[in-house]
Amino acid sequence: MAGFAPHGKCTVSWQGNLLTVSYEGVFNREGAEVLGQALEAPLARRAGRPWVMLNDARLWEGGTPEAFACWAAYFDRWADQGLVALAAVYSRALQQMLTQTLRSHVSSRVPRHFSDTPEACLAWLAENGLGPD
Fold first, then answer.
1. Tell me: the pLDDT tens digits for 89-102?
2. Which residues contact 38 (CB under 8 A, 6 or more apart)?
3. Nearby residues of 74 by Cβ (< 8 Å), 6 or more positions away
4. Which residues of 7-39 are buried (b: 16+ CB within 10 A; e: fewer)?
5. What confidence score (pLDDT) does residue 94 get?
């Protein structure tokens, strides 16, 4: 089966042990895979040391079922590579509804929190001793 061009855009930035990922648009599987590929080298350098993730989904518009399956597989791998908590920013109730299954999946591996501002997510991480190092 031929692959498709990646749909959706994500940007990643590290601040110590805090990975911030911003999502924009609608993702297909190929678009979701871009994130996993972008994190391969940085996570290898971390060598399993604990890290936390802040997902900023305020500009995210959804994804295909294949994109969600891809993200779930990545979260499993990341939990095995030192991910200890996830905080996510959603600007709309629809985003929360679309990610309900994925959020439940992630919660089975690491503590997670969601809010409508990055500041609230960072505060939750700090309250749990998980802020940037």
1. 988 776 767 777 77
2. 10, 12
3. 32, 35, 36, 39
4. bbebeeeeeebbbbbbbeeebbbbbbbbbeeeb
5. 66
CB hemisphere CA count around 90 (13 angstroms): 18
- Are 83 and 108 in contact, with CB atoms under 8 Å apart? no
Q: What is the DSSP annotation of 65-86?
A: HHHHHHHHHHHHHHHHTTEEEE
Q: Would you say 60 and 25 are in contact if contact means Cβ atoms under 8 Å apart?
A: yes
- Residue 92 three-state SS: coil
Measure the CA–CA gap between 25 and 125, rounded to whole angstroms: 26
Strand partners, 13: 20
User: Low-confidence residues of the chain, pLDDT below 70?
Assistant: 1-2, 94, 96
Q: What angle do CA 59, 64, 68 make, to 5 degrees?
A: 85
